[in-house]
Amino acid sequence: MKIATFNVNGVKTRLPHLLRWLEREQPDVACLQELKALDEGFPAEEIRAAGYHALWKGQRSWNGVAILARGVEPVEVRRALPGDEADEQSRYLEAAVEGVIVGCLYLPNGNPQPGPKFDYKLAWFERLIAHAKTLVDSEHPVVLCGDYNVVPTDADIYNPRSWRKDALLQPESRACWERLLEQGWTDAIRKLHPDAPVYTFWDYFRQHWQRNAGLRIDHLLLNRRLAPSLRAAGVDTWVRGEEKASDHAPTWVELDLAAATAPPARARKRRP
């Protein structure tokens, strides 16, 4: 199974890019972020014509997440991250696809910091950590993927010097990331490419794409049961090179689900 995450930066504006990518790479599951469209504006018909069923949660002008599944219907599990019923931002969607629990997330950017946006980022991260704790040891294979808006280490950015004040590199953001991993999640890209300069985002300024001055902020985390099935991981950088592309490139993993560890056996009751 191939699972990918892609911040499309406007699903209607980038629809031609999305459809070309789906046709060429054919992921089995595609998690999308930053739809920037209301529910009724989601291009469901075009995506269905490409062979994908979809769940989505939109929002006007920003945010919005979706889960696409090739040839099968994703089964919705939840439409919001637990922990704050008053939070109306569309940033989390969870579904079951062919036995795998897929969490699609768009973690807040947090800029400018310090300030209320950064406070919201950290509060949202705390809710994610709490929810992830319920999933890491699940008997089901689980992947939490999306735009985390966190550069985990200085090795995940072309040059950290000019980004030191950005919310993506703050010690608090990185500490939350480390606490998440410490639960037992596997960072798929770093598991298979521990030392390589892998980037998933190149902003539109100062020729960052042309100079390969990128950041790694799109991540796929595998729970303990799913991690043994990891076979490949990478970034479809060609998408970022398209005209008027998103500033992100799709990031993906290939999994051999037969290698996923079996759930722990339940103790049998002795007959009297």
TrEMBL record:
Metal-binding as a keyword of this entry, yes or no, is yes
Among InterPro entries, the record links this protein to:
AP_endonuc_1, Endo/exonu/phosph_ase_sf, Endo/exonuclease/phosphatase, ExoIII-like
| Active site residues according to the UniProt entry | 106, 147 (proton donor/acceptor), 248 (proton acceptor)
Quote the Pfam families the UniProt record gives. Answer: Exo_endo_phos
Reply yes or no: does the keyword Transmembrane apply. no
Q: Where is this site: Important for catalytic activity?
A: 218
- Its domain of life reads Bacteria
**Which residues are involved in binding Mg(2+)?**
7, 34, 147, 149, 247-248
Cofactor binding, per record = Probably binds two magnesium or manganese ions per subunit.
Q: What class of enzyme is it?
A: hydrolase
> Which terms are listed as keywords in the entry?
Hydrolase, Magnesium, Manganese, Metal-binding
The alphabetized list of GO BP terms reads:
DNA repair
| UniProt EC number | 3.1.11.2
* Family as reported in the entry's similarity comment: Belongs to the DNA repair enzymes AP/ExoA family.
What NCBIfam families does the annotation carry? exoDNase_III, xth
**Listed name of the protein:** Exodeoxyribonuclease III
Natural source organism: Ramlibacter cellulosilyticus
Which taxonomic lineage does the organism of this UniProt entry have?
Answer: Bacteria, Pseudomonadati, Pseudomonadota, Betaproteobacteria, Burkholderiales
User: Gene name on record?
Assistant: xth
